[in-house]
Amino acid sequence: MTQVAWQGTDRVPAGQRGGQPEWSGMARTDASGAIPGGGAIAPSGPMAPGAPLADMGLQTGAQQSQQTHEQARTGGEVILDLQHISLSFGGVKALTDISFDVCEHEIRAIIGPNGAGKSSMLNVINGVYHPQQGRIVFRGEERRQMHPTAAARQGIARTFQNIALFKGMTVLDNIMTGRNTQFRTGFLAHALWWGPARNEEMRHRQKVEEVIDFLEIQSIRKTPVGRLPYGLQKRVELARALAAEPSMLLLDEPMAGMNVEEKQDMCRFILDVNRQFGTTIVLIEHDMGVVMDISDRVVVLDYGKKIGDGTPDEVKGNPDVIKAYLGTSH
Ligand SMILES: Nc1ncnc2c1ncn2[C@@H]1O[C@H](COP(=O)(O)OP(=O)(O)OP(=O)(O)O)[C@@H](O)[C@H]1O
Ligand SMILES: [Mg+2]
């Protein structure tokens, strides 16, 4: 039987269809923290380039976050409920009647082939796009038209598929922009560096320094972002999102274009954010090994429609999902 790796999610050409997708990547630990199949748990740290993801110490992060994940799986409260969402651009139906929910503290993945509607869905959640149909209930309140800054004030932060940073500004200043929605005192007070404004800015700077420490980017804090390699720019974008102290983090392909080592680091940070801060994470990612390892639940889109929803194991066995990726069911 032909083996097809779930690495990229480009639609598979008809001539190559058939077979069983191989959900390669990082093994999910079982309840005891052991890796199914008996693999050893490696300590985290630098790994040889090209090492298989399963050998890179990610199990340590997954194991540490097991308790949080179990809580999410076994009854975390629904904090975001998307009901019958439809979104069109002229004649293009980006999303058709999509319903799914997100529970507090979970890692919820959205997957699907190119053009499936994943980024559109994220843009609906943080108010960039307004669906023509459907309801969005966030923390018990139905949202109508919402601006992204309002979503940010409600604790929703995000990163973008294409890095959206100020390339000429330093890492520190870029991360500081993540605090914008938190400023309470006025522009004039800040301009004069006066009283409460001064105290407030000190608090913001302290928070930013905490994020810099957390993501281990102290050495590049004064470097202009445009001079950094791609993988580090992605990490800075995560830092900017974290600086907003979100309760929900939307990540649009945070590992796209990264090498294996950079992916390992990013996985560890995502798991640590989830575990240490309890942040709910909605993740779009094409690397199926990563998705299947770190997600609690996965929703699958194809051509703007939902074709699967469940735990990684349920989704892996879903004939419609296999068909969407391979073009055939069996
Ligand atoms: N602003 C827009 N204007 C017009 N069409 C759009 C817009 N945004 C998305 N679309 C269309 O909606 C569909 C879904 O696009 P979307 O970017 O959400 O897919 P995706 O699943 O994120 O794909 P990829 O994996 O390539 O990032 C595509 O047909 C796309 O061309
Ligand atoms: Mg996209």
From TrEMBL:
Region (Disordered): 1-73
CDD domains given in the database record: ABC_Mj1267_LivG_branched (cd03219)
Top-level lineage group: Bacteria
Biased composition (Low complexity): 41-52
Pfam families found in the cross-reference section: ABC_tran, BCA_ABC_TP_C
InterPro entries: AAA+_ATPase, ABC_AA/LPS_Transport, ABC_transporter-like_ATP-bd, BCA_ABC_TP_C, P-loop_NTPase
Domain ABC transporter: 80-328
Keyword annotations: ATP-binding, Cell inner membrane, Cell membrane, Membrane, Nucleotide-binding, Transport
Any one GO molecular function term: ATP binding
Polar residues: compositionally biased ranges: 60-69
Entry protein name: Vitamin B12 import ATP-binding protein BtuD
Organism of origin: Cupriavidus laharis
